[in-house]
Each structure stands twice: as structure tokens, then as C-alpha cells.
Description:
The chain is mainly alpha-helical. It is built from 16 helices and six strands.
Amino acid sequence: MVYVLPALKFGLILAFATILPNCSTKHTSADGGQHGGGGNVRAATTEEVKEAIAIAMKLATIEDARANYLKRFMIEWDDVGQLDTKIIFPKLIRPQSAAPDSVENRRRQFERREFRARSSTMMNQRKKLYNHPENFASEVLSALAAKTPVFMMDGPCPSPDGKHADASVSSLSKNADLCFSVSRLKRLPITGLFEEIAGLLVHEIAHLAGAQERDAVLWQEELKFFLKSYRAVRSSVAYADVINAMGDVSLRINFIQRNAINLNEERRVIEMDRIISKLRGIPYFMDPMILELSLRPKNPHLVNNFTNAVLAMIEKIDRTYRLNHFQGGMWASENVGESQFRHREYMADNPSPPPKFSEDQWQTILADLKKMYVIMDDNFLAYMGRENKSSTCVLPTQVIYVMDGGPLAYGDAMQVSPPLKCDALN
């Protein structure tokens, strides 16, 4: 039986962890569940397989490099070994650096975040890749975005070489048909579904670009190692984590408002510093790939409105109190003594101290922050599709560098411009 996906309605999956390497022309697993770790892991369902394919195709072809796992693979993976990157990205010139020979060592290096210590030249090259989408011009990905995959509900996909295949293309051409064998992919454990399907997809993308089997397998295996490096992050982010982090921001604002009369100017600056720290602590608020794979939002196209609302609130505090980037949150501490020490360091290095405000001005500032908080909160709920909230565009007025806490959290990628644009609100 053949099922043709009528329209790519992209969904989300929560899973994606470690599974055995697989080439698209081989069996992926034995029938039934697989055992590992603490017990039996169930196999994926038909709908979960279709959903994983849809999201893998979406995030492979999306323009935003922060959300596109293929583009991030090119930017963040320190060394791609023998991989021919120009098969998929013919205009891309990647920064090269010395790296361990084995794929496994490269993965371990990535997990340890050792490439944070790379030279400023390497960091600047990576930033340029994020900020110049023309580097990622790809005819094959443009062709993929327009494809409707064929789903084989019984048996393998047809393959030009006659082998049984979990996925295949009808020819080595970007105009070829793309097939996935749902019946065979259902053998995969749910915990590794996205990772495996993303690997299968890039294998077939390489074939669509005209690559032979050797290069297609290299793309598949390298990408899977890259995705494995994110598995701890993906499994650690939940809806409640984001809600609780934003709730901490609200609690801090309310605390300052209730106790404003008892806070001297130094303590007020310290408390505002803490609010910035709380905002920067919202999990992966600048990382649409992690948020989408972890949270399964109903309106993923609204992610920039949420991100920009957080950045605008950070900027509001930062500019109001003339705090530089480092004193504006990276070194904030719950320990009042340490925060006072940091504040005095700042005051010693900056001849223009934070301005003093009258009580009326102070209350106006806090009221503005509460309004901005409501917008941020509503934007997140609109992104998630909860409580019928509307999304509002609030843009920061300048580039903000958020180096800690993660959106592209494995290194220097945070030092790029935020998405200074509004999302479509429908």
C-alpha cells in the first residue's frame, strides 16, 4: 500500500536520542521494542513516523539558520572530516581548523564545548555564516521543500539498485521522487526516531544532489553524530521549565515594586541586574530548533515574537540603567554581597553611574516592565497555542549579544544579531 502525504503539515516530536548507525538501504532494527538502559523502549507508531519525517523535512529546508539543523551542522560542527559539503551547499566556504581524526572524538569535543576556546578568527567566520544566508544557497534543498514524499505503508521503498530500502529516491537528480517506508521505519524505537530519520533524509538529499552512496553515507553518519551531541539539551527542556523561568522574572519585578521604598539606589541596580539574569535564564529562548523539537509548539512560526520580546525587555533594563553587557546579567548573583561587589566594580570602571530616579519615575519604570512581561508571556503562550493568546511584535532597537544561557549554546554562535523582525501573526 502506498500513502502519499497530501500536504506537509509539520508536526513535532519530543524524542530523539541514540540509536545504531544505519544506511538507508539496510534494516534499521528488529521487529518489536528494543531493550536498552532501564527497560523496554517501544517502537514508533505510524503517525509518529509520518510526523518525524514532516518535521525533518521542514527543519532541513527552513531559511532561518538557527532552526535549520543542516545549516547548524555546517556552522557548529568543528570538522567534517572527508565530508564533501559542496554536495548540498555548493557556495559554502566553511572555516577549517585542526580537529581529532575520528568522528567519535569530534562528537566528544563538541559535547565538552572545547571549541569555545577557538581563535577569534574562527568565531568571526562562524558569525558570518549565520549572518549571510547566501552561503547556504542550495538548489537541492529548494527542490526538497517543494516535494511531496511517498509513504510506503507495506514493504520497502523501491530502489534503483534493487535493494530493500527504508528510504530512497527514484534517481540521482533533484527532480526525483522521494520515498519513505513507514512499515520499516516503525521498527525504530521512539527515543531515536528523529535522529535516525534526519540521517536518512540527508542521505537521500545527497542522492538528490547527484552524490553516490559513499558520500551519502558520510553525510548521514556525520549528521547523526552532530545530532547526538544535542540529545541532553533536547531532553532537558520542557514547557514547565520555560514557564517557571518566566515566572521567576515576574516574581522579581513584584518583589522590587513591593519593596521599592526600602531599596537604596545601589540595591535597585542590583535587583534590576537580577531581572536581566532571570531573563537570560529562560531556556533556549533564542533557539527555535531546540524549542520546536522539545516543546512541540502549535505555532512555531511565532517564535521570533517570543524571542524578541525577551530581548526587548533585557534591552529596556540595560539601557535604562546604563549597564554594560557583562554587568547586565552574566555576573549577576543571588548572593547580595557578591552582587554589591560586582556593582562597585562597575561603578569604579564607569565614570557615568546609573541615573537616579524619583519614586514616580521608578514606579513608571516598573509598570513598563510589567507590561513588557505580559507581552512576553502572551507571546510564549501564543507560540505554544495555549489560552488563545495573541502574539505581539516588540522589537529591541539594537543588536544585543546574549552569550550565556544558550540559544546556540555550544559556543560562539550566541554572538550574532537577534532576529530583528516580526513574525506573521496568523
